[in-house]
Amino acid sequence: MPSRLREVVAAPALESLANAWRVQAEELRGWGAVQGAKALERAAADLDAALAAEHGAVLSMREASERSGFAPDSLRHLVRDGKLRAERRGRRLYFRAGDLPKKRPSLDGPHHTGYDPAADARRVAGQRTMRD
Asked: Is residue 109 over pLDDT 80?
């Protein structure tokens, strides 16, 4: 899975996965499978710890821009306006991963900036019918 997509989907999905493991552990306990329940609880705790560490990770401007989907200038404006916290080290800004805003994914898919011959043909065909 591409890293950008994984980051957009990851946090809520992984948190719900840890909760699902805890529910399954309770079910296993009810059936007498104590060792299996302990294994699931341990896995859920490990996942929670990894998510907490990721949430607190310190990112450079480039990393923050890639992770959030916002351009570096937009992140700087958010910091300047007091809408985003950042740590300044010299002239550089560093961000906590958990503080970053997330850009909503586009509903109509990726925008193509290259030449599209099919779209051009439709445009030309539309112009020809208008002249006739």
From this structure: no
Q: Please list, in sequence order, all residues whose beta carbon lies within 8 angstroms of the beta carbon of residue 34, skipping any fewer than 6 positions away.
A: 28
Do 67 and 100 contact (CB within 8 A), yes or no? yes
* pLDDT tens, position by position, 56-92: 788 899 989 888 888 999 999 999 999 999 999 899 9
Quick check: 56 and 96 in contact, CB under 8 A? yes
Burial environment of residue 35 by CB neighbours within 10 A (0 to 12, 13 to 18, 19 or more)? exposed
Helix (H, G, I), strand (E, B) or coil at 113: coil
* Model pTM score: 0.50
DSSP labels, 87-108? EEETTEEEEEGGG---PPPPTT
- The residue count of the chain comes to 132
What average pLDDT does range 46-58 have in this prediction?
79
- Two tokens at 29? 């306990």
Angle (nearest 5°) at CA 105 between 103 and 109: 145
Amino acid at site 74 = S
